[in-house]
Amino acid sequence: MANMSERSARFRRPASLFDSTAEAIEGAPDPSTRTELAHHSAAALLDGALHTSDPDVVERVVTLVREEGLEDLAMLWSGSPAQTLPGALWRLYVLHTWVHAQGEDVVHRYREGAATVPGLRYLAGFAEPPDAHQVTQTLDEILRGAFTGDLALALARAGAVAVICAHGTAHLADRAASASAQEELTTQAGRLLTTGEDLAAAARLADRDTLE
After folding, report:
1. pTM for this structure?
2. pLDDT tens digits, 184-201
3. Is 111 exposed, middle or buried, given 0-12, 13-18 or 19+ CB atoms closer than 10 A?
4. Dihedral angle at the C-alpha atoms of 101, 104, 105, 108, nearest 10 degrees?
5. Which residues contact 156 (CB under 8 A, 6 or more apart)?
6. 17-65 confidence digits (pLDDT tens)
7. 92: CB partners within 8 A, 6+ apart
8. Where is mean pLDDT largest: 33-42, 44-53, 66-75, 107-116?
9. What CA–CA distance (Å, rounded) separates 173 from 195?
10. Residue 64 backbone dihedrals phi, psi, to 5 degrees
11. What are phi and psi of 43, to 5 degrees?
12. What is the 3-state secondary structure (H, E, C) of the chain?
């Protein structure tokens, strides 16, 4: 099997897991305004959830994208560098959305990759063996923890999930029945690996209180 670094070098993109999300949005603000809005909105969302005693507010943060869709966050956050607060939260929300939308597929990829990077399984925190309901609950827990507990740990856990799924996707690519399926899965593996590495890097910054 080609190693993951070879795959990601060819197919890595610093983009969302979903191709068309940001491209479909019209009327974006100019770059300087967008950057300022991204940082202020991310900081406000984090600060508001962290300091509230109202559990309904926290729940609205967790279900924000599920109820409203990714478009509004994409407008503000999708263009932010990975190692910034809005960039990290964007990747966290996109991963959370993917897991909720494709739970069974996530479980399949996770199980394929778990043996390749066993140390990350403990960080991800899935039950063994995981099922679709359990992985969606765990991603809710991770997202909730980002806003109410330890941001660095939440980002690191989400990164571990993405990296494990990346390795699993690469294994599936090796067994794909056609060249087109293999290429598609390899592309997905590279994107998942990028997302996982981005989240892990942001987690290290958050741990040092330098993620802004």
Report:
1. 0.80
2. 999 999 999 999 999 999
3. middle
4. 150
5. 123, 199, 200, 203
6. 334 333 433 444 555 556 777 777 777 777 777 667 677 777 777 777 6
7. 142, 143, 146, 154, 155, 158, 199
8. 107-116
9. 18
10. -55, -55
11. -65, -40
12. CCCHHHHHHHHCCCCCCCCCCCCCCCCCCCHHHHHHHHHHHHHHHHHHHHCCCCHHHHHHHHCHHHHHCCHHHHHHHCCCCCCCHHHHHHHHHHHHHHHHHCHHHHHHHHHHHHCCCHHHHHHHCCCCCCCHHHHHHHHHHHHHHHHHCCHHHHHHHHHHHHHHHHHHHHHHHHCCCCHHHHHHHHHHHHHHHHHHHHHHHHHHHHHCCCCC
Amino acid letter at 14? P
Residue labelled with tokens 């560098």: 81
* Among the listed residues 65, 99, 61, the one whose alpha carbon sits nearest the alpha carbon of residue 192: 99
Written as six digits, the tokens of 84 are: 């910034």
